Amino acid sequence: MEDEKRIEDEKRIEDETSKELLHKILNSVELLKKEQDALSAKVDSYETQTNDQFKKLQDQLKPNDKNEKSKVKEIQQPKVTSKGSKAYPDIVILTTYPDQFGIKPIPLEWGESDPNVRGPVLASRHPSSIKVRNAIGAYGGSYCVYRALAVAMGALDPQHRPDFQNTEPTVTIGPHPQWGMPDKIVSLDPFGHLTTTLFDSQIAQGLDIRPTIAITKAHMKVAEIENLVKDGRLKVDGNVVLNDSGELNVVKAAVEPVWYLPGVASRFEIDEGTLRRALFEDTGGMYPELITRPDLKVFLPPIGGLSVYIFGNPAFISDPSKRLTVRVHDECNGSDVFGSDICTCRPYLIYGMEESVREAQNGGAGVVVYFRKEGRALGEVIKYLVYNARKRSAGGDTADNYFLRTENVAGVKDMRFQALMPDVLHWLGITKIDRMMSMSNMKYDAIVGSGISIYERVPIPDELIPQDSRVEIDAKIAEGYFSTKKAPTKEELSQVKGRGWDDIQH
Ligand SMILES: [Zn+2]
Fold first, then answer.
1. Half-sphere exposure (Cβ direction) of 31: Cα atoms closer than 13 Å
2. pLDDT tens digits, residue range 277-287?
3. 144 alpha carbon to ligand 1 midpoint, in Å?
4. Looking at the keywords, is RNA-binding present (predicted)?
5. How far is CA 167 from CA 163, 213, 214, 249, 252, in A?
6. Which of 257, 299, 359, 386 could be stapled to 364 by a disulfide with Cβ–Cβ 3.0 to 4.6 Å?
7. Calpha distance 498→506 (Å, rounded)
């Protein structure tokens, strides 16, 4: 009884403290907003006047009270003296507010099939665009940080506007009916590759609208494919496989993430407010507008995007009368590029390409989607920490501990959260997949759950599995990954062992 009362008391105190804290935060946000409003109103009204007057305004805004001065000193900015110092206006606009003077975002109706009604995605803080922009974040995904560096170093003029001449897509993708279904696509802009054509008049008027998707053509050479051609296991058709050195003819697209926040929240079955708060807090408070601009529903997150590789006629992808093979791959740099043998990533990726080529040669088409979600989106540092923990486990690196070790280090076993992944398939107009080159139950569930049928799931053939990666693949099969074989038991899993440190020669 006493215990219960104590817990109740503690809970009450906790509740009161958090209420008080919340109140304090709200008050300071309110104060900040008022100050910012006053500041921007002043800046706005002086904007068109001469530099002298602007200087005067700045003097007026300088603190004169002794206390205030010392406060300001504490948060004094590092000196700006380098070449890039003239890149930005003297006054920093920390954030904006919906009812602020001059703020008038251009309309953006997510999920509208008519691009003129939908409107462009405008994320720029360029002086021509900051007041009318309708998206939070910056163009370029994670590369916006490099852009900032280039500006800071004086290597890039922040006012530089891209010359889009001849940058248009090399093939036509869409429009597809899915583009006008608000719940089908929430993590990329379906019109992202058509921006410069659809919104050319707004761009000509000075708005800094940029494409978030680019589509091009290429030839590519992959050692494994070359061997298949040399061994006669893949034929040269002059269209998909161009010659006996295995050169492939592809159409490829690069896609940057564009998130419609209410749609992303609903995919994860959370509320938009929680999503915004988490994105604000866990990026070190990088995007205050996630909090101050509830009217802006679109966010360009600073993360990697994806690439699409198309084998065969791109028009066949959305044609239900043509067969389609698909591999959706999440980045694994160690295996994909450097050939590390602890996992099956590169072998499965190449197998996905091989089968896509075959499908295209047989009159269908193949698609390989490559997501920048390194190490199950936990990142490569976490991944290597887990490798060490696995190899140093008492009893060795066994399949039964595979997911547990990841969870010990990262707190979760996977952060790829495949819920957003099918968006790119809907962008391509895919309605069914004949052959899905994946064993992942998460990918399968996400795709089928989004309304795309999968007729056949194709596991990686045994002969393509590197010895050391049996740990990973068996752990995954036991966890529910698709396999044509029986899932291993707990006892069997503990017998599947990877290489120990002693076997690795340095
Ligand atoms: Zn891998």
1. 6
2. 999 999 999 99
3. 27
4. no
5. 9, 11, 8, 20, 14
6. 359
7. 17
